[in-house]
Amino acid sequence: MELNLIEERWIPIRRKSGKEEQIAPWEITDSHESDPVISLNAPRPDFNGALIQFLIGLVQTAAAPEDENEWEERFDAPPSPNELKVAFESVKHAFNLGGNGERFMQDFDRLETVPQNISGLLIDSPGENTLKNNADHFIKRDNINYMCPSCAATALFALQTNAPTGGVGHRVSLRGGGPLTTLVAGVGGGLDSLWRTVWLNIIEKDDFLRICCNPKKKDESDIFPWMAKTRTSEKDSGCTTTPEDINPAQMFWGMPRRIHLNIGDAKPGICDICGCATDIAIKSYRTKNYGVQYAGPFLHSLSPHSRQDGSPFPVHAQPGGVTYRHWLGFVQEDRKRNREPAFVVHKFRARPRQSDDVVFRLWAFGYDMDNMKPRCWYESTMPLLPLGKKIREEYESDIANMVVAASEVAKNLRSCVKTAWFKRTKDKKGDMSFIGARFWQNTEENFYDALHNLKISLEEGNECGLIRQGWHKLIYQTSLSLFDEVAWNGPVEDADPKRIVLARHELEKKNNSKKIREELLDLPKKS
C-alpha cells in the first residue's frame, strides 16, 4: 500500500466559497478563477504550519521559476493543475507514505524496535518520562490512538521539520529544536489564494541554489535523505551532516529522526485527530535514535537568523509570543542584535508590488520549546507595506527608532514595577515577562496605524514629527496605565505605598529621557 502523497487527495483546504475538502498537491490551483483554494484547513495550527512548508518545499524543489520574469508571470497567471502534476511527476516516487520501497520522511531500513503509540509523532504529546512519572496533567495519554494517513503524514513532516531535543541520540531539526518560520502572504486585490501564498515564498532557481548548502550534490538522497541509507550519527561510527554534504533543497526535507510507520498493521477506524473515518487507521510506529545530525551554518529561506561570528543561526520562538517587538529582525534588519529577516522577506522587499487594495503580511509561527517540552505554539501576522526606493531609508529608520523606543519604555516599565513591589529588587528574580507582554499587546494596533500613517506622510513629502510625537505619547501613557494597574497588586508582605509612588515618578522620568525623546524619536527636549 503505497499511499503516494503526490497522487492522493490528503491536504485539507477551504475554498473561497467556504467549501471544505481534501486535495492533492497539484490541485492547489484548481478553479483558481472561479472558486480558488484560499487556505489550509488542518485540525491543528501546527499542522497548517507544516503543510504550508510542505507545499513551498515541493514547489521550490520541483517547479521553481527560472528567473524573475517567470516568477512574475506565474504570480499573475498560476500554472494549471495539469502543469503542476507534470512538474511533480519528477519527484513522485519519493513521496510514498507506505509500501515496500523508500518511504516519505521514513528510515531507509525497517527498524526492529518496540512499536510506539502513534501519538508520539505529535510534538506536544507526553514524553516517556512524563508518562513514567504520571505527570501528564494537561495533555493526557491515550487521547490519540489512531491517525488517518493524512494526519499521520502531516504529523510526521511536522516532527521532522520542528524536531526538538528528544533524549539521547534523538536529533533536532536542520534549524534546531522548534524553529520559528516567517512567510510572506497576501490579502485582498485578488491575492486571496493558497497558490499565491506559496508562490510569494518561492525563489528563482539560481538565487535559491546560492542561499546555502552544496548545489553540486545532485543525487536523490542529497535532496530527499530517505532515498538512501540514513547518515547515522552514533558516537563512534556515525557522522555529522553539514551544509557541504547536502543539496540546498534538503532544507525543506531534513530528516533527523529515524521513524517507520506501521501502515501494514492498520485497520479501518476513526482518526482521533480529524475525526474522519478511514480504511487505514495507523496505530503505531517504530523509531530508533542516532539519525541525521545536522551541524553547521544552515541558512533556511523561511527563517530569520542571527549572526554570530559571521555564521547564521535560526531564530526560535520565545515566551511572550510574536508581536511588533520582533519587527527588527523579522521585517527589517536588526543591526544591534545582528539579526536579519528570512531570505523570502528579503526577496519580497526587492520586488515591491504597489497596490492600494492589497495588504501583504508576514506570517510567523513556531513552537516555543523548553528543550524537549513545548511551552506554547505561537502564531501571528504583521503588515508588510510595499515601499518605494525614495522613502525606504527614512521610513525604515523612523520605524526602527519607534520600535527601539517602545523597547526602552517596556524595559523601564518592568524595572519600575519591580522597584514598586520589592524593597530589595536584586533578591527577587521572578518572571516579570507578563508585564512586557501586556505592553506590547496594548500598543500593537497603534503601531500598525503609525506604520501606515508614516508611509503616507513620507510619500506626500510631509514632516513626520507629529507621528513620532504621537507615538511617544502613546507608549508613555500606556506604560503609566499598566503601572497603575499592576503596581498596587504586588506581594502584600512587601507593600509600601510611598515606594510605589516614587517608582511611578521614576518611570515618568525614564520615559522622558534624552535617549527616548531626542536620540530615538527626534523630539524637542522636555521642558
What does this structure look like?
By secondary structure, this protein is α+β, with helices and mostly antiparallel strands. The protein folds into two domains: 284 residues, no CATH class; 139 residues, Topoisomerase I, Chain A, domain 4 (Orthogonal Bundle), CATH 1.10.132. It has 15 helices and 16 strands. The strands form six sheets. The chain has a three-stranded antiparallel sheet. Strands 4-10-7 form a three-stranded antiparallel sheet, with no helix packed on it. A hairpin with a 4-residue loop joins strand 1 and strand 2. Helix 11 runs parallel beside helix 13 and helix 13 packs antiparallel against helix 14. The N and C termini lie far apart (78 Å). About 2% of the residues have low confidence.
Supply database-style keywords.
Topoisomerase I, Chain A, domain 4; 527 residues; single chain; 2 domains; 15% strand; three-stranded antiparallel β-sheet; 35% helix; alpha+beta
Strand residues, percent = 5-15%
Number of domains: 2
Mean pLDDT: 91
> Span from first to last CA?
78 Å
User: Tell me about the biggest sheet?
Assistant: 3 strands, antiparallel
Structural class: alpha+beta
What is the molecular shape? Answer: globular
Radius of gyration from CA coordinates:
25 Å
Q: Got a strand count? A: 16
Write the layout of secondary structure elements.
Elements: E1 11-15, E2 20-23, E3 37-40, H1 45-62, H2 68-76, H3 81-89, E4 116-117, H4 128-132, H5 149-162, E5 181-187, H6 194-199, H7 205-209, H8 220-223, E6 240-241, E7 258-261, E8 267-270, E9 277-281, E10 284-288, E11 293-294, E12 305-308, E13 311-314, H9 327-330, E14 339-340, H10 343-350, E15 359-370, E16 373-384, H11 389-421, H12 433-459, H13 465-487, H14 497-511, H15 514-520
Helix pairs in contact: 1-5, 11-12, 11-13, 11-14, 11-15, 12-13, 13-14
